[in-house]
Structure formats: C-alpha cells, structure tokens
What we know:
alpha/beta; eight-stranded parallel β-sheet; 14 helices; globular
Amino acid sequence: MSIFQRTTIALARSPVMGRAMRAVAAGSSLAQRFVGGTDVHAAVRTALRLWQAHGIRSSLFYLGEYVADPAAIEHNVSQALDACRALGAAGLDVHVSVDPTAIGYMASDALGAANARRIADAIASPRAAIARRNCMMLDMEDSTIRDRTCALHRALLEDGLPVGLTLQARRRRTPEDLAWAVRRHTSLRLVKGAFPERALDHAGRARIDLAYLDAAAIMLSRDARKAGFYPVFGTHDDRLAGAIMTLARERGWSPDAFEFEMLYGVRPDWQMALRGLGYNVRVYLPFGADWWPYAIRRVGENPSNAWLLARSLTADGRYFG
C-alpha cells in the first residue's frame, strides 16, 4: 500500500480530523451535492424523488464507519434498521449498504456478525416484502477486513438471508470469490476498488479495467443466470459500461436483469441516459452528518477526487434538483 493510501486510511479513521472538516464544511454545498440527507427521513425523501422522477433506485448508507465505541456501533445499527423500515413504508426497495467496521467488526467479529444479522432479518421480514429488490449489500473496505466480510456474506447467505457482497476488480483473487458467488441466488456489486496494495492487486488502469471486464464476464455467465444471480456493476466509466452492455446483449441478458450503480451526485446525466436505454440504475446514497470518512475514501480511490472534494467545499448547487 502506498504512503498516500495509508495516509487516507489514517485520515478516514481520525475523529479529530473528522470534527475539524465537518466544521469547515458546515456552510458548504457538500452535503447537498453528495449526501442524500442528514437523517433517514431526508434520505428516503431523496430516494423517493429519484425513483418517481427518473426510475433510479437507491441503496441507503449511513455515514459512520471505522467505529469501536459500543454506543456508536449501536447507533449505526439503529440507523440502518430505521432505513429499512422507512424504505419499506415508502414502497421502495429495502436496500441498504453496510460497512462491517460500522456495525461492530472494529470491536469483535461476533458483535459485527450479530448486528449484520439484525439488519438482514429486518430486510427479510414480511413487512419489507413489498419492494422488488431487497438486499443488505456488504461494502468492501481495506484488506484487513476483506476475508471476514466474505465469510460474513457466506454465512448469512447460507441462512437464506437477503445479502449481497461488494468485490474489487483490482484484487487478483476476485475471480475465485466470484466463481463461488455466481452459482448462488445472491447479488454482487463489482467495483474497481480503493486502497490498492501491490502484493494483492493488479497494477495500472489498463490492467484493472481488463480485470473488471474479466470479472463482468463471469458475472454474466450462463451459470450465473441459471442460479438467479443478480449482477451489479459499480462504475462511472462509460467505456466499461458500454462493454458490459454489449457482453450482456451477446449472452442473452435483458437490460432489467442486472444493474449499474453509481455514487449519488456523480454523473447524474449518465445515470439518466442509462435509464433511458432501459437499464436498471441505482445510486449509493449516503446520509448522516459524519461524512468525512466517506469523502476521504473517495479520495483514496482516486487522488484526482481531492480536487473535486476541495471544490465541493465552496461550490453551490445540487444534482437531481
């Protein structure tokens, strides 16, 4: 892992830096532009507007990863449970994204797994069955939590709970994890991946793009379709999206049998263009006040995002207004 990547992880985990940056950004448009609301009710209103106006789905994510304090962990879990209830009541997909480090894995694996089960049970409840695609999507964080996240996905899936997993194309071992997942009735979100580590990853944009398309080919296989596997392609890269659309068409996947996912507030024009072509589109919609770890992770994924973050501290305006 590079010095830059280690620094961004440290910054993401720094409570002092988080408090300072939230104070600096208090009057800016950052939350309006990239965060769906300060609380669950505002986030659900944003999700409902996106669905009604554009047919774009949402996955709600409460901002609060990398926590070890028991009270903070329970608060994060409660926010996810509230999101499940509010989404179901609004008639939307009961779809939430969860960071394992937000719900207990910084304290103990047993606590994290128990809390993940609480959220997945809420999504699987009969009252949530109104939505079409209900899922607890496990986010993938840095490599210290990777194996435990994969193990959690398998355990919950084996118990019949509606859980999906995020995998990073840059990791060399991703095809092995995919080979298992695509034969199950589950969902998998493929991303390029943040916080690169030389010993574990492909290097260079061209090689990572190729690895992404290789993984997409596995996700769009005949075995995957027969198993009821639901592919999710997390990318803002229209070149990759175009290649995926071609591959899906050649292999007999209809546009509504998979989806593209993007960050809320990033390339909304492309999101709506994909919807216009008949493809499912979902936005990763964060909510809450603790936006600093989320923002710095975006910088960790791509150093050029540092300029975007800096501009957002003073820029005005809102996407999907």
